Amino acid sequence: MKTILILLGSEFSANGICVSRIVDALLKSGYHVICLVKDGEDPRVINGAEILRVKPPLGAKAAAWREKHKGKAAWLLFKLFLAIKKLKLLLLRPVWPIISPLYVRRYKKAAEKLVLTHNIDCVFSVFTPFEALLAGHRIKKKHPEVRFIAYFLDSLSGGVVPRFFSEKSTLKRGLKWERKLLVNADRIVYMKSAQKHHGTHSASNAYYSKMTVLDIPMFTQPESRDTSKPEIDPVLDKTKLNLVYAGSIAPHVRDPAYFFEVFSLLSSSNIALTIIVPHAYRLPAKYSRDPRIRVLNSLAHDLVIETLAQADILVNLGNKLPSMVPSKIFEYMAAGKPIVSTCPIANEPCIDYLSRYPLCLLLPEHNPDPARDARALEKFIDDTKGRSVDPAVMRNKLYQNTPEALAELIGNVLKGENSCGKS
To answer: SS3 string of 55-81?
Structure first.
């Protein structure tokens, strides 16, 4: 049995959720999987995969401490810590994206120790975090017999521009690190959203021949409720037609205001919009008077799963960042339900995927006309009642978005096959 060591950051982050789908596919393919993470309990086994933890950086511990301590004194101490952290980031600017040298050292040592003690066949480094790439490169350098796959769910040279940096300096620094760390990778996997970027900036590098495109591995069968647990009281009123959004809300990335405006113009009183967010969010006063709209904060995971399963139409709030594809749209499509999505920019990253989905309505928020879009939404609701899409049909169209596609690639790398595709 081949053993794969997956290096990542938080198992509870968006990248961690994607990796959990990959782990499931690898386990089904007969691999032994070990994951090195920075949070949770240590050690433990989840669905057959070993989860090992590195002592987290100070910032993560401070945030956890703040969650448990309330009051003015705790608030002031945390504010002081944040001020020190900003100063630290400024001082570490020359070595970005290393932002916690001691933690990076701990992480690399922990990863190297696992290679020595667990007969690792392949190291799978997930970016972000940066230390996962550093550790994978270091392991390959010391143990050339171990396969090294660099997996970019985010882009290093073409990603988010950090504070105190310009886009030009981020690109220059990111490309410099990529040339250094990817030179000994056996395979480099990046997302479709970064394809143009790498075609422009990476094609002249020797490692480009080892780069291949897959995509966000979230086209999987929706989770089902654990039937061993007690029945859950339904969140939705089944006498109404229910539209549901589940996910975070950050106005600089996705803002529900336009969809609220469109929904408020619908004439029917027999519809309901439920917004489920994993953090505190208050409905704008203008829409809080509409009894059909409600916000639910921090619902238990099982309850979120059950609510999405009961929804009639799933809502996606489009992203304002063209390179950030929300993973939830693949889970939405896998559910086979009708989907409505806003498009706050003309090149909104979901359009390419959702335009291939038969039961989808795209609302052009970048060319706003709430009355027009309310009419379109009313028609969409009427036209899609009782209809669904066969997930198997979409799976064939979006195979690059399945964790099985990545498990197949890893298997090929372990066999020594070098076929790479840029399309």
So the answer is: CCCHHHHHHHHHHHCCCHHHHHHHHHH
